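Q: Hi! Curious about what Aminotransferase class I/II-fold pyridoxal phosphate-dependent enzyme looks like structurally. Here's the sequence.
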Amino acid sequence: MDLIYLACLAYLDPGDEMIISAGSFISARIAGTIMNANIIQIPTREYRHDLERILASITPKTKLIYLDNPINPLGTIVNRKELAEFMAQLPEHVLVVLDEAYAEYITSRDYPRGLDFYNQNYNILVLRTFSKIYGLAGLRIGYGFARPEIIQTLMKVRLPFNANRAAQVAAIAALSDTRHVKRSRQVNEAGKAMFYREFKRLKLFYLESYANFVFVNFTVDSSLIFDILQRKGVITRTVKEYGFPTALRVSVGREPENRRFLKALNETLAYLRISTPAAD
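A: Let's find out. The predicted structure is below.
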């Protein structure tokens, strides 16, 4: 998240434009707003980045485009072909910030890797984090890669000592712990499958996710469901600030935690008498 802020600080002046999908990670929008940039929010198409519309929205004032792939909190992606065509049409004056926070969860060959676009010398800053599959969220450590001149620009606005030694040591060790990554990916896939089966049985609208959470929609204000679940000891996430007032983002946990959530959800829906399908 620190690199998102640094990118906005380095590349945005008041009045510049930053393009972001409506429904994307809200911290990027906040960072652009802090810089007094004009935030151009592009509606998603079928809950995915509308890359054609993003391209069409670029003006001489556009300095930065933020793409989270997968989108947080939707869990959807754009594929390799779509992103390649998008990058090939991008004007040179625009920097793409490609946030791959959940990339390690994805095994699909159709998932585009930012490293490929970096190797092709595109104007791109690729972000990764140790807060997700590596489980180091409390250490607040991540990394990014880009062309040398982009990194040099970011270094001009970076505060010194923004990553402590303990976090750096843990991050380096985590990179070699392939067994943990593989096991976490397996647990995540099994948990998502469990959620999908139950959401389908309950006739709830949900999105198949490439991340470690699932977006699920209801027919009532999601705060009602959130509050009841919380009283039952289960914490989810409302996503009203993303434009989805009746949806929750549910993180995937270990099997006992997933079962506890589903049991609490069934009890909550029965209490609220919610049983009808919730489409978009």
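A: A fun detail: Residues 178-201 form the longest helix (24 residues).
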